[in-house]
Design goal:
Length: 372
């Protein structure tokens, strides 16, 4: 026997987070929720009497008849319910689409732009996760703070690149101090307590940390990226250009290269622009170093100054050691040689007799010229 055809009649309905609620003429309320592609979950109520939810295909007469029988057992009189359920079956798909469009519009109007289309919201100054349950989407509060990655820093010492996230956040409108978090530690979320203490907290739960991490990542898609070099000498930029790094930037490009040197290494800084008029005089001043000490000392010292930028190519296997009794101005002579590459005096040399072996190794590593 063929199924009867129903027209899409006017029914009062309300779009809910967990489905569509229909108001029927005899005071009965029918809630329909999508359960799967062809199956829905239907519950009914009249006054204080309920019919527990039933799942089935509302487009079939068999399921509708079952609902009518259940309603009759609870409500006694159910005149016209079969026809109204048929009308609901015809209109539900359209109403469900209307509900989804309304939810999408609300998402775009009230949610942070970066979180639109995701299960995350910012509510009352904290992250909220819309968790799908059999009863619809339930908001799960995750944090009392909102955070985002402001910038992603890649620190390059010439051998290894370490990635850091600079995270900024707010608690109830009060800014939290920026936190520089190593990328490998970001997902664990342990840095929240370390950096922000009790001001910022996350709700208890097995998946909360993962959800907070994902929400922050989604909110941070526009974070800027900084590549910070932590050594001097020649290097190849990501665009393939070969430049010479120093504390003030790079020779070979006018701007856009950031160099961050530690301690006295920051004094290795060359002028951004070279005055061609003054260049001959600078060369003469450099060569006059040979006049201030015996040739066997100054010639070797000056040659090592000119060799330094080329060490990544010729790979010298020796070091220069100034040796003399105390009071012979060794530090002054060394500072004159270093002044070819920055602002040095005998009191501001990168290392001294007080430097530890580990510190000396670190300084030598960061001031070397890597091989091309």
């Amino acid at each position: 026997m063929a199924e009867p055809e129903y027209e899409l009649l006017e029914l009062a309905y309300d779009l809910r987070d967990d489905g569509v609620l229909y108001e029927l003429g005899d005071g009965m309320r029918v809630k329909v929720r999508q359960n799967s592609k062809n199956r829905v979950r239907v519950s009914m109520q009249r006054g204080n009497v309920f019919v527990p939810p039933e799942t089935g295909d509302l487009g079939t007469g068999t399921f509708r008849s079952r609902l009518v029988d259940l309603a009759r057992e609870r409500f006694d009189e159910v005149n016209g319910l079969a026809e109204e359920l048929g009308t609901i079956a015809v209109g539900f798909e359209e109403h469900l689409k209307e509900r989804e469009e309304a939810a999408a519009t609300d998402d775009e109007e009230s949610n942070a732009p970066e979180l639109v289309g995701t299960p995350y919201r910012i509510v009352d100054g904290g992250f909220v996760h819309l968790k799908s349950t059999p009863n619809g989407e339930i908001p799960q509060h995750l944090t009392n703070f909102v955070a985002r990655v402001e910038e992603e820093m890649v620190k390059d010492d010439g051998a290894d690149m370490r990635r850091y996230y600079r995270v900024v956040g707010e608690v109830q409108g009060r800014r939290l101090p920026p936190a520089d978090v190593p990328a490998p530690r970001f997902a664990s979320m342990g840095w929240v307590a370390e950096e922000w203490g009790l001001k910022a907290h996350m709700t208890a739960g097995l998946s909360v940390k993962d959800c907070v991490r994902e929400a922050i990542e989604l909110l941070s898609q526009e974070a800027r990226t900084r590549h910070v070099y932590q050594h001097v000498g020649f290097t190849t930029l990501p665009d393939g250009k070969r430049v010479y790094l120093h504390g003030g930037g790079a020779v070979g490009v006018e701007q856009g290269v950031e160099v961050e040197l530690e301690g006295e290494l920051s004094r290795y800084a060359l002028p951004n622009l070279v005055d061609a008029v003054c260049l001959p005089d600078a060369i003469r001043r450099s060569l006059r170093i040979v006049d201030i000490a015996p040739d066997r000392v100054t010639f070797l010292l000056l040659a090592s100054v000119y060799l330094a930028p080329l060490s990544g190519i010729v790979s010298p296997d020796f070091v220069v050691w100034l040796w003399a009794a105390t009071g012979n101005l060794k530090s002054t002579l060394a500072s004159l040689a270093l002044s070819h590459y920055g602002d040095f005096t005998e009191d501001t040399l990168p290392i001294s007799f007080e430097s530890t072996p580990n510190f000396i190794e670190r300084i030598l590593f960061c001031s070397r010229t890597p091989s091309p």
